[in-house]
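Inputs:
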Amino acid sequence: MGTGTGLGRVRGLGSARHGGAHWVLHRMTAVGNLLLLPWLLISLVRLPTYDYTTVTTWLAQPMAAVPMMLLVISVFWHFRIGLQVVIEDYVHEEGAKFASLTALTFYTLGTAAFALFAIAKIALTGTPN
Amino acid sequence: MAQNRARPLSPHLTIWKWGANMAASIIHRVTGTGMATVGVLVLTWWLVAAATGQESYDYFLGWAKHPLGQLVLIGLSWAFFQHLGSGLRHFVLDVGAGYELNTNRFWARATFVFGVVMTAALWGYLLFVKG
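Outputs:
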């Protein structure tokens, strides 16, 4: 593969020296999830009911909408890195790996955009009552 | 790129002997992948339904309260607690601690107990205490 040799580096086959940053981000987002997911779980358990008005009234508050947006960023970033590691471990053919990673990126950004827009809409347009 | 097909590639699912620690590692991946796919779609559906209006939210709620939906939600909450337990174990392993055979096996088993106990506690409360 030419890892470490001058020619290997020119061909781009060696280490890009960016592996560590991914690893650290995976742990950092894990800590974010560790704070935000128990918050969501406890908030949901404490809601009296799960009907439309109760949930949207709760989510419209800044103290719910902002942590929820942070949760989407932290959780989605974390799973993006995690699934990339899974793909890199199981998909060895270069073309299929590139296609899988592209699909993963589109899936992550697509679902994140829908989730963040939904939270923003609930928070900014207020509750129906 | 030329590749030697005979070379073992990670993770060596087919050649490992099953044990608590490797099971914890594999289940960590399985639960993570499950939450990233099913869990993320359910969460996004819930949020978008709530942002769209009463009718689409009620449609979501109908599925969430359906026995099949409840089964998915129970499964997702188990995946969350299991992933949380093995994730905390990973933090300890990341700093280079907990690799002694007995310690390692003990905490691997503990993640499974944690996952099941927390899931049972959550749904016991939701279904039987809160009603």
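Remarks. Chain A touches chain B at residues 27, 30, 34, 37, 41, 45, 50-52, 55-56, 59, 68, 75-76, 79, 82-83, 86, 89, 92, 94, 111, 114-115, 117-119, 121-122, 128 (CB under 8 Å). Chain A has one domain: 21-125.
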